[in-house]
Amino acid sequence: MQSRAKFVENAATLLGKRGFTQDVDLIEPWLTDWRGRYSGKALALASPANTREVAELVKLCSEADVPIVPQGGNSGMSGGATPDASGASLLLSLRRLNTIEPIDIDSQHVTCGAGVVLQTLHDAAASEGLRFPLTLGGKGSATIGGLVSTNAGGTQVLRHGTMRAQVLGLQAVMADGQVFDSLTPLKKDNRGFDLKQLMIGSEGTLGVVTAATLRLLPAVACRSVMFAGMESITDARKLLVHAEREISDVLEGFEVMPRHTLQSVLAHYPDTRDPLTGEHDWYALIELAADETGAETLDAKAESFLASGFKKQLLDDATIAASESQAEALWNLRDGISAAERAIGPAMQHDISVPVETMADFVEHALPTMNATFPGTTAVAFGHLGDGNVHFHVLAPTGAERGTWEEAEGKEISCKLHDLVTEWGGSISAEHGIGQMKRDELGRLGDPAALSILRSVKSALDPQGLLNPGKLVPLAPAQANV
Questions:
Q1: Does residue 482 have a pLDDT over 70?
Q2: DSSP 355-383
Q3: Which residues of 49-166 form beta strands (DSSP E)?
Q4: Is the pLDDT of residue 253 over 70?
Q5: Together in a domain, 147 and 193
Q6: What phi and psi values does residue 303 have, to the nearest 5 degrees?
Q7: If DSSP codes are grouped into helix, strand and coil, which group holds residue 255?
Q8: Whole-number pLDDT of residue 163
Q9: Last residue in a domain, options 199, 218, 237
Q10: 317 and 232 in one domain?
Q11: Quick one: which of 333, 221, 325 has its CA closest to 286?
């Protein structure tokens, strides 16, 4: 086995000054997750420029028994791209793998590197009259590799699906340095397991994603964005069912938020304003979208949908954006939630799902249950009602100390909520991944057979346990008791 000193020497030679550093000041910004919950140390920061360099670097790590923590835009929500405190791991940045190949306009797909930023891909597709049908609040920093590794969702899953549905081909470097190359998009391929799907959502624990071939769609020619107020999330659910019956062919997104969450955004961003004149307990942000073939009838569909919703008494008030700037202003209310709530103070933030048809009932049950169980806290839920996925946040009591509160009462809160989610047949991670934040909870609540398979796959593909250690895969009971 190579010594660490020899490994550092070889890695520095392989990647050069631009691709390898042990400079503490250069590494420090990448050692803490976006939420500020997890911080660690790293042996060095490696920034390879292409897949060949990634493969050679991983071979060096295997020979020297150096753990690897892959990282994209460092915008993850579960601590999945943060090294531990030992300082033994190599922080592997994929940000230099930022090449976008020429877009195949006729076939409507594109191959790009793992380091391409989502917003950059959106712009590249738009320049060819196409679009990539996945977006989220962190589109300015999230990278394609990170989105693939966490099977990201976002606000368009209702119509287009998660990242799994967007990936046509994949390239990844395996734990021994072999390159798994399946970038060619095939409509049919029955050569055994779908290995690219195994990589998607594996959070860097099975391989390092270096490139992906992604599907594109015709650009949106017209959209209609609406903001509606109603008495309850149950009414919002009824409005969603109504939308799926009346306008399913153009229904792009359906997001919900309570009054408390809207007020948080309005307070945090001085330039925002309440879209409706009165106050309502719940709100729905609804987007309809059409390409050129359906653009002429979209406005009429939007107006008819709202009119019928009022007639059925599914909403109390609503507005339709009269311009693109107004549409963006409405979406900014949704995209600004995370930052607004973070500014309030400590919170336990959960990304959960239950069956779509029971989500409204779950929220109506869970909100008062959590508030009663933990006096002084404020539970709020918002997000992708149409996907059966909400972000369930429990805000700390006034005066709680950030960091200390999360480690004490905060952990009890998460356990209680995860128990509720499990009782309702749901998942403790809908779109943010498991990372290190929810690994132990997955081990506590996961199906034993599924956990056994998860561990077996990890052991088979990464026998040294070097790929993103401590993330996603729960320890076996015998290991956990050591």
A1: no
A2: -GGGHHHHHHHHHHHHHHHSTT-EEEEEE
A3: 68-71, 90-93, 109-113, 130-131
A4: yes
A5: yes
A6: -65, -40
A7: strand
A8: 97
A9: 218
A10: yes
A11: 333
Percent of the chain past pLDDT 70, that is, above it, reads 99
What would the two tokens of residue 105 be? 């306009």
Three-state SS at 1: coil
Average pLDDT, the chain: 95
Query: What is the tally of structural domains in the chain?
Result: 5
Q: 368 and 308, same structural domain?
A: no
The Cα 121–Cα 112 span in angstroms is 8
CATH code for position 67: 3.30.43.10
List residues bridging with 222 in a β-sheet. 290
Range of the domain at 471: 439-476
Separation in Å, CA 395 to CA 129, 309, 380, 398:
43, 33, 8, 9
State whether residue 416 is helix, strand or coil. helix
Which has the closest alpha carbon to 172: 102, 86, 70? 70
Please state, in angstroms and rounded to a whole number, the distance separating the CA atoms of residues 133 and 219: 9
How do strand 222-230 and strand 167-174 relate by DSSP bridges?
unpaired
Do strands 44-46 and 20-21 pair parallel, antiparallel, or not at all (unpaired)?
antiparallel
Sole residue written with tokens 């946040």: 393
Has residue 155 got a pLDDT over 90? no
Token code pair at residue 394: 């429990």
Q: Are the C-beta atoms of 286 and 243 separated by less than 8 Å?
A: yes
The pLDDT of residue 34: 84
Mean pLDDT of all residues in 399-411: 92
Of the candidates 281, 304, 329, which is a domain's last residue? 329
CA dist., res. 401 & res. 182, Å (int): 48
Are 207 and 226 in the same domain? no
Residue 81 lies in a domain: yes
Read off the tokens for 112.
Answer: 């790009």
74 and 154 co-located in one domain: no
Q: What is the pLDDT of residues 335-364, one digit of tens each?
A: 999 889 888 999 999 999 999 999 999 999
Scored b (16 or more CB within 10 A) or e, 422-435 reads bebebbbbbbbbbb
User: What pLDDT score does 480 carry?
Assistant: 57
Please give the span between the terminal C-alpha atoms of the chain, in angstroms, as a whole number: 26
DSSP letter assigned to residue 467 = B
- Same structural domain for residues 43 and 118? no
Q: Looking at residue 137, what is its pLDDT?
A: 81
Same domain, 120 and 211: yes
Decide if pLDDT at 99 tops 80: yes
Collapsed DSSP state (helix, strand, coil) of residue 14: helix
Residue 430 lies in a domain: no
Residue 359 placed within a domain: yes
- The residues pairing with 383 across neighbouring beta strands, listed in sequence order, are 256, 390
Q: What's the pLDDT score for residue 481?
A: 55
Q: Which residue is it, tokens 């049908």? A: 133
